[in-house]
């Protein structure tokens, strides 16, 4: 297992060295309440949006993108068609220039899914489908490698697009609402002991983020996106215990709000002294 790096030390180093943001990858966990929305900005100014929260989050996501001077999105990844992940994406497609959108090859009859498809049609934007084993080169030294789904099932969560984004020596793992079944398939199919960062699956539900999955991926840092005092009880105690057991520094939007991580390709750090578990 790789050596753990304590983020609190890296925070101090980053302030002292005054890292140049122009050469950094940034991961923005946007606080959309009980949902997911993540902005990834690359050193060459490419913008990737992973999910968009529910319908009520549309102005939150739009305003966040505007504050970060995002005028166009190179890629949108809708991890799966649950409303708390795609609810605002129709609004984002309508209000931003979008080059590519990816999603699972699954159709549902929900209003949020129909609205997203209609917005894509109005922009002549054709969704592309991702499966386990697919790869997307973003730019030099940055690649997306898709780990799941292997096939489409009836449960939306099991169809979540799970992928790593690799930037030089750092690897970021994004899991949508993947469940234990997905995690088992992933760790049996891929060697992921190099993961540095984990976006915790399903808002910290105890139906994912198993002890075995954390042991095999051994992330240094994890982020949980969930609503303050949400009715689901996310994140669940067992999930937090699994992360703590393996000394994963865990950060939560329900406690912090928006969270931003940076990477120079070697080290992941923050610019703020966020509270962690």
From TrEMBL:
SMART domains named among the record's database cross-references: Lactamase_B
The Metallo-beta-lactamase domain, residue ranges: 34-228
Source organism superkingdom: Bacteria
Cited PANTHER family: BETA-LACTAMASE DOMAIN PROTEIN, DNA INTERNALIZATION/COMPETENCE PROTEIN COMEC/REC2
Protein known as: Competence protein ComEC
Organism, as annotated: Asaccharospora irregularis DSM 2635
